[in-house]
């Protein structure tokens, strides 16, 4: 990665000018970087700094340009094309015989865009792991944030949580302020070991007292922890520029900066609820066991058991699960959903629908939607969906189970269900792509 930046004309310390907040972890990265970006945007609107805020994330949902934001907007098609071909042409012109793979190529494109646009602060999400991730080219970020670490990407990172923590902690840099949340002991020890000789004190963030007075867009409990990590890492940028953001800020206007920033933060696809006719929808792209447990507990509490003022028939609604996960083992994920939901007064889903992420059959041919980690033939045969249906019915054979090819057909099926029931609660989860396809399906959701 350093060699590629060198061929682009950058020296190793150039990315440090971007005042980067580097975020790693397994569960909560997306929410954390969104909160950081939201507070920085509030600072920009209130005080004029940072003038330009970069955000580099992965993967994208609809367009590759979503990975590179400036001031909360994806860069334009014109800008993306310019910076993409700047990188392509310079690497080719400097003797690069084989281009970097997809994500490794997009990372220098993002850094080139941020430096060309003279970004004042940037939030950079690690792709996979940390130690060997292409984003780890940053030598001196403004701050490092490490959110919850769990088992994930075992093929690349290792089979136990300690090995995974070793990779995640690889973004810790000498003398750079580093923050994390409460971790299991094995993870915590691995993080501390990574700080050896680096002059780093890892600060463990607890729930910020201010959050009891803040209304976050998503009220799933884990979001408070993600927001609590966002506040101190932001202070490492704002302190340098005369703005101090304490975790226990008061009602003083300058201390209201985090409050307004956190409350303005939109979390698409995370704890998103909406109502259409007699159907209440909850959409969340959770795709890990731990995240699904929190989500389903929240779903049960909020939508199924939440309103004692409703008539009895409405407090026992039909419950529908719409699920897809194309790249992970589905057995443990579905078991987590079933077990957690059964703890909500013994509830079970009446219908479980397993579908692809595709809005319709034509999506597979659009370049931005090509997923090189998934075999197209497997998607077209619905292999993963049939496997999910089988895994679901082993412990719960009484559930009505449907395998459906597209989101368009899922919406049609939900419309039929809604005609025969008084009240229907629908949980959509397993994939941010699925959530986005349903949110984008016209007036359906």
TrEMBL record:
Documented EC number(s): 6.3.2.17
GO MF, one annotated term: tetrahydrofolylpolyglutamate synthase activity
Protein's GO biological process: one-carbon metabolic process
Keywords from the UniProt entry: ATP-binding, Ligase, Magnesium, Metal-binding, Nucleotide-binding, One-carbon metabolism
SUPFAM superfamilies: MurD-like peptide ligases, catalytic domain, MurD-like peptide ligases, peptide-binding domain
Record's catalysed reaction(s): (6S)-5,6,7,8-tetrahydrofolyl-(gamma-L-Glu)(n) + L-glutamate + ATP = (6S)-5,6,7,8-tetrahydrofolyl-(gamma-L-Glu)(n+1) + ADP + phosphate + H(+)
Gene Ontology CC: one annotated term: cytosol
Pathway named in the protein's UniProt entry: Cofactor biosynthesis; tetrahydrofolylpolyglutamate biosynthesis
InterPro entries: Folylpolyglutamate_synth (IPR001645), Folylpolyglutamate_synth_CS (IPR018109), Mur-like_cat_sf (IPR036565), Mur_ligase_C_dom_sf (IPR036615)
Highest taxon listed in the record's lineage: Eukaryota
Signal peptide range in chain numbering: none
Entry's family note: Belongs to the folylpolyglutamate synthase family.
Protein name as catalogued: tetrahydrofolate synthase
Source species of the chain: Polychaeton citri CBS 116435
């Amino acid at each position: 990665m350093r060699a590629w930046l060198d061929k682009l004309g950058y020296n190793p310390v150039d990315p440090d000018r971007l005042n980067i907040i580097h975020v790693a972890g397994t569960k909560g990265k997306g929410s954390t970087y969104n909160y950081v970006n939201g507070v920085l945007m509030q600072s920009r609107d209130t005080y004029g700094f940072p003038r330009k805020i970069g955000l580099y994330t992965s993967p994208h949902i609809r367009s590759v340009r979503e990975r590179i934001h400036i001031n909360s907007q994806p860069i334009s098609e014109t800008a993306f094309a310019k910076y993409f071909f700047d990188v392509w042409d310079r690497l080719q012109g400097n003797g690069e015989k084989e281009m970097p793979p997809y994500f490794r190529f997009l990372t220098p494109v993002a850094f080139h865009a941020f430096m060309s646009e003279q970004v004042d602060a940037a939030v950079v999400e690690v792709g996979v792991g940390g130690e060997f991730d292409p984003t780890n080219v940053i030598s001196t970020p403004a701050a490092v944030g490490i959110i919850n670490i769990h088992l994930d990407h075992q093929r690349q990172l290792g089979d136990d949580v300690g090995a995974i923590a070793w990779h995640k902690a690889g973004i810790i840099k000498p003398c750079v302020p580093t923050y994390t949340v409460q971790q299991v002991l094995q993870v915590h020890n691995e993080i501390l070991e990574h700080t050896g000789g680096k002059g780093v004190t890892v600060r463990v963030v607890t729930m910020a007292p201010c959050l009891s007075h803040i209304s976050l867009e998503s009220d799933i409990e884990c979001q408070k922890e993600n927001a609590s990590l966002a506040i101190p890492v932001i202070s490492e940028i704002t302190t340098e520029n005369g703005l101090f953001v304490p975790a226990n800020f008061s009602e003083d206007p300058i201390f209201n900066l985090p409050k307004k920033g956190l409350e303005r933060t939109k979390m698409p696809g995370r704890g998103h609820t909406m109502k259409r006719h007699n159907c209440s929808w909850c959409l969340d792209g959770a795709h890990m066991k731990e995240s699904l447990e929190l989500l389903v507990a929240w779903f049960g509490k909020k939508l199924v058991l939440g309103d004692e003022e409703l008539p009895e028939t409405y407090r026992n609604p039909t419950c529908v699960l719409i699920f897809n996960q194309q790249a992970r083992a589905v057995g443990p994920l579905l078991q987590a959903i079933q077990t957690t939901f059964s703890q909500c007064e013994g509830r079970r889903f009446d219908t479980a629908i397993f579908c692809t992420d595709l809005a319709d059959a034509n999506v597979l041919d659009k370049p931005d939607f090509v997923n090189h980690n998934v075999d197209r033939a497997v998607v077209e045969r619905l292999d993963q969906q049939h496997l999910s249906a089988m895994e679901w019915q082993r412990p719960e054979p009484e559930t009505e189970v449907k395998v459906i090819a597209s989101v368009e057909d899922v919406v049609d099926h939900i419309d039929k269900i809604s005609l025969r029931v008084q009240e229907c609660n629908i949980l959509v989860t397993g994939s941010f792509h699925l959530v986005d396809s349903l949110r984008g399906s016209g007036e359906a959701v």
